[in-house]
């Protein structure tokens, strides 16, 4: 009988010890939960997406003419862009291939300032919905045949945006020829503060 009493006392002491530990294991507890005990644990995780997705056209035709009355001499369609990702992204141009071989004596301007034989083309984020920009303020100029790191747009998660091709040309640039401008866009998790 004495053995049974000691065994019951040990069993009762062990169950009280486990109860005390289990009661102390809350979401903010830093104590260990022993094997056979119980408790709650709050887990917080951060998801870092590995797939960024942005939708935009792959071909944009535009016309450029010195007869356009305002500063922007380019007429282009609206370039719709949509961030399909769940995080903000930035869209950068890293390289622009320019082919002016079909225009005699034409040269490229990398900064938007043109002389009589130069062309300058850039991208400008839409400021007024569905309205082609008339001026060249805030244009991101494309630099011909060299690496560049030019941010053209920042979009919040699942946000839509738009931009236009803009530009200007010198008086002696032929308006009866075509040329190709092929920018390389890179989409990445934004590192630019919009404020």
How does this structure look, described?
This protein has 195 residues and is mostly beta strands. The chain contains one helix and eleven strands; from the N terminus they run H-E-E-E-E-E-E-E-E-E-E-E. The chain has one helix at 2-24; strands spanning 54-55, 63-64, 74-75, 79-83, 89-99, 107-108, 118-125, 140-141, 147-155, 160-169, 180-189. Strands 1, 4, 6, 7, 8 and 10 form a six-stranded mixed sheet that branches. A three-stranded antiparallel sheet has the order 9-5-11, with no helix packed on it. It is elongated, with a radius of gyration of 32 Å.
Percent range of helical residues: 10-25%
Kindly state the mean pLDDT as a whole number? 82
Number of helical segments?
1
From the alpha carbons, calculate the radius of gyration and give it in angstroms. Answer: 32 Å
Unreliable residue runs: 1-29
Largest sheet: 6 strands, mixed
Tell me, what's the shape?
elongated
Strand composition percent: 25-35%
SSE topology string: HEEEEEEEEEEE
Q: Structural class, please?
A: mainly beta
């Amino acid at each position: 009988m004495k053995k049974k009493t000691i065994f019951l006392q040990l069993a009762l002491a062990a169950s009280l010890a486990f109860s005390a530990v289990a009661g102390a294991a809350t979401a903010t507890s830093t104590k260990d939960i022993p094997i056979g005990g119980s408790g709650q644990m709050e887990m917080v995780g951060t998801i870092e997406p590995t797939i960024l997705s942005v939708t935009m056209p792959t071909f944009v035709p535009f016309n450029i003419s010195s007869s356009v009355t305002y500063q922007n001499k380019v007429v282009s369609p609206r370039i719709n862009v949509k961030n399909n990702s769940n995080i903000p992204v930035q869209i950068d141009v890293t390289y622009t291939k320019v082919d002016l071989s079909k225009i005699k004596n034409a040269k490229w301007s990398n900064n938007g300032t043109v002389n009589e034989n130069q062309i300058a083309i850039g991208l400008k984020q839409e400021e007024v919905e569905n309205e082609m920009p008339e001026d060249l303020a805030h244009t991101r100029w494309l630099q011909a045949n060299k690496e560049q790191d030019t941010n053209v747009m920042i979009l919040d998660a699942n946000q839509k945006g738009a931009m236009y091709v803009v530009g200007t040309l010198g008086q002696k640039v032929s308006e009866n020829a075509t040329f190709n401008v092929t920018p390389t866009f890179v989409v990445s998790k934004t590192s630019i503060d919009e404020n």
